[in-house]
Amino acid sequence: MTRSRYRFFENEYPDFMTCTINSWIPIFTRQESADIILDSRRHLQKERGLKLFAYVILDNHLHMIASAPEISAVTQSFKSYTARQIIDLLKSRGSETLLRQLSATKLNHKTESTYQVWQEGSHP
User: Fold this and answer.
1) Which pTM does this prediction carry?
2) Which residues neighbour 33 within 8 Å (Cβ) at sequence distance 6 or greater?
3) Domain residue spans in the chain?
């Protein structure tokens, strides 16, 4: 069961979605962070039927107008994959401050992970 009060109901219509970095931490201030989002978007368009009508990436969140046959599953896949890639990037860059923030602001029930990159939900 989802913890968000926002849900996807009609897959045949585009949804406006917002995906926010946990605690509004500015992750997308460098190109390589935004490239993770762009690479994932291209993959989901090719492999999962994502149709992207518009998007904008800001320093701590992104907005999309998108649709897909299973938009909820596609969004979950997108957030899971990009979170792992962002954490790996931050580790490789030695961004200890950002990693500490992502760890300190992680929700208590997220016991399987050290960090929480995305806020729960995608607010369609």
Assistant:
1) 0.86
2) 27, 86, 89
3) 15-104
Query: Which has the closest alpha carbon to 108: 27, 20, 3?
Result: 3
Are 4 and 121 within 8 A, CB to CB? yes
- Residue 94 exposed, middle or buried by CB count within 10 Å (0-12, 13-18, 19+): exposed
CA atoms within 13 A of residue 105's CA, in its CB half-sphere: 16
Q: Is 16 helix (H, G, I), strand (E, B) or coil?
A: strand
pLDDT in tens, 39-75: 999 999 999 999 999 999 999 999 999 999 999 899 9
Binning the chain into helix, strand and coil, the percentages to the nearest 5 are 40, 20, 40
Instruction: Look up the CATH architecture of domain 15-104.
Output: 2-Layer Sandwich (3.30)
